[in-house]
Write a structure and sequence with these properties.
Layout lengths: L7 E10 L2 E11 L4 E5 L6 H8 L6 E9 L2 E2 L5 H6 L2 E4 L6 E5 H13 L5 H15 L9 E2 L5 H15 L3 E5 L7 H12 L7 E6 L12 E6 L2 E6 L2 H9 L10
Parallel strand pairs: 3-10, 3-11, 6-9, 9-10
Antiparallel strand pairs: 1-2, 1-4, 4-5, 7-8, 11-12
Helix pairs in contact: 3-4, 3-5, 4-5, 5-6
């Protein structure tokens, strides 16, 4: 953790799309060295929060603010947030034909650090990360996500995270659609990156990823609001009772 200043602080965040309010006053604090899990049913606003944290222009922040290391980034563009250390692993990563994994990571590294990495420097860094993740070295020369299976796309997101070394990693349903082996690989890759200098916000619909990664805090998001937060035991309670038990009556 870093003194009294949280790594991420979300204050009263309200977000709309086409005048339809999706997030209705979300408060969230993530410190360095912490793993937070955000769980909720489909349509609760989980992916909206992930996209808004990363600065997606398709969402309108109508109230509240987002602070990264104490700096207000509510209106900052996505590239500035990335330079400041934010990273989003997508639920459905896009294909980029003609651009290899290594080429993409070289550009991303340059943007993240301001250092113009050579092709060789980038390749060595990528190969080191791939070895740690148990990935086939030929993966580095394939076009980004082109022809990748669902598991390969998610492994690639973890590879990007390992190479870019963000201070805040947001995983948007990275466990979605994975078989048990791919899930374990992704989980081990994430666990290998947990450190006192980095915070994680893992967004998930199911408990199964949390069987491999034990969060410090779990938040339940229902109807655009964080209705409760607690320790790892909250996942077991959710598994037993379901999301409906956490749904608050409309006043």
């Amino acid at each position: 953790m870093s003194g009294d200043t949280p790594l991420l602080q979300v204050e009263g965040l309200r977000v709309s799309v086409d005048s339809h309010e999706i997030l209705k006053g979300v408060d969230l604090v993530v410190d360095r060295g912490e793993v937070h899990a955000l769980m909720g049913p489909n349509g609760s606003g989980k992916s909206t929060l992930a996209n808004v944290l990363m600065g997606h222009p398709g969402y309108e922040v109508t109230d509240g603010r987002i602070l990264l290391d104490g700096e207000d980034v509510t209106d900052a563009p996505p590239d500035e947030r990335a330079r400041r250390g934010m990273f989003l692993a997508f639920q459905y990563p896009e294909e980029i034909p003609g651009v290899s994994v290594t080429q993409f990571l070289r550009q991303a590294l340059t943007n993240r650090t301001g250092i113009d990495y050579t092709v060789l420097e980038t390749r060595l860094k990528v190969m080191e990360a791939m070895k740690a993740l148990g990935m086939d070295p030929t993966f580095a020369d394939r076009y980004l996500n082109e022809g990748f299976s669902g598991g390969e796309r998610k492994r690639n997101e973890v590879l990007q995270m390992a190479v870019l070394e963000p201070s805040l990693a947001i995983l948007d349903e990275t466990d979605s659609g994975l078989d048990i082996d791919a899930l374990r690989t992704v989980a081990e890759g994430v666990k290998g990156m947990i450190s006192d200098e980095r915070g994680f916000l893992i967004i998930t619909h199911y408990q199964r990823l949390l069987d491999y990664i034990t969060p410090d805090v779990i938040h339940i998001l229902v109807d655009g609001r964080v209705v409760t937060s607690g320790g790892p035991d909250l996942a077991a309670e959710l598994e037993e009772k379901g999301y409906e038990s956490f749904r608050q009556p409309v006043s």
